[in-house]
């Protein structure tokens, strides 16, 4: 799975591991937290990884892919 995601994201296995670890801790990093994660991984703070990962997690949980739905 990591190699499959790696191909589409262009991130290394180490970058994905760090992002996944942070996602498990905080699904909505903001401000300084996001800046520190981005610096550690070597990606832009605007990187869509967390947003896409959240949509994937919500789908796995049987929730709509976006927050704020009536179905939440």
From TrEMBL:
It is found in: Nucleus. Keywords: Developmental protein, DNA-binding, Homeobox, Nucleus, Repressor, Transcription, Transcription regulation. Transmembrane segments: none annotated. GO terms for biological process: cell differentiation; regulation of transcription by RNA polymerase II. The keyword Protein transport does not apply. GO terms for cellular component: nucleus. Residues 3-64 form the Homeobox domain. It comes from the Eukaryota. The keyword Transit peptide does not apply. SMART domains: HOX. InterPro entries: HD, Homeodomain-like_sf, HOPX. GO terms for molecular function: DNA binding. Coiled coil: none annotated. PANTHER family: HOMEODOMAIN-ONLY PROTEIN. This is Homeodomain-only protein. It comes from Xiphophorus couchianus (Monterrey platyfish). The lineage of its organism: Eukaryota, Metazoa, Chordata, Craniata, Vertebrata.
């Amino acid at each position: 799975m990591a190699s499959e995601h790696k191909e589409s994201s262009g991130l290394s296995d180490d970058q994905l591991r760090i992002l996944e670890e942070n996602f498990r801790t905080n699904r909505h990093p903001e401000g300084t937290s996001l800046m520190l994660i981005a610096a550690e991984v070597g990606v832009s703070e605007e990187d869509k990884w967390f947003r896409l990962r959240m949509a994937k997690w919500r789908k796995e949980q049987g929730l709509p892919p976006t927050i704020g739905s009536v179905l939440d």
